[in-house]
Write a structure and sequence with these properties.
This protein is mainly alpha-helical and 137 residues long. The protein has one domain. The protein is built from six helices and no strands. Helix 1 runs parallel beside helix 4, helix 3 runs antiparallel to helix 4 and helix 3 packs parallel to helix 5.
Length: 137
């Protein structure tokens, strides 16, 4: 959980480093920001714009943190502050990447969000069941 809390920061730093490296390689180590070696508009856009925004990876991270915290939180209460830290880091990382990193996100309908909310309703049941098991042992 501790690694999962800090991984979004590591991911952003690696992403911007790789993106900067590809831009420098495209310019030929020149400081001229208008110089490019690409021969088509699509390859230029692939080099200088970010990737597509994939919402399902973000939801899977959120579900992972919630379910691990709720399953083992009563036995290891330190998981609740770590989960809170993870949500704060994930929130600011996503806001920053939406503004500066990703292309325009695709239009998602409500089915994906509703599916995640339906899955999240089982997390308190796991907290009760595993919490009773841990407290009774």
């Amino acid at each position: 959980m501790w690694f999962n809390a800090w991984f979004p920061i590591i991911e952003v730093l690696m992403y911007f480093g790789i993106r900067l490296l590809f831009r420098i390689m495209d310019r030929g180590c020149s400081c001229d920001k208008y110089k490019t070696r690409t021969t088509s508009i699509q390859s230029y856009l692939d080099t200088y714009t970010g990737p597509a925004y994939l919402m399902h990876y973000k939801y899977s991270t959120l579900l992972n943190v919630v379910f691990v915290t709720f399953m083992y939180g009563l036995g290891m209460p330190i998981l609740f502050p770590i989960a809170c830290l993870s949500f704060v880091i994930l929130y600011f990382q996503e806001k920053t990447m939406l503004y500066y990193g990703y292309r325009v996100p695709p239009m998602y309908d409500e089915r994906l969000s509703q599916n995640v909310l339906d899955r999240l309703q089982t997390a308190p049941i796991l907290l009760i069941l595993f919490g009773y098991w841990m407290a009774s042992s």
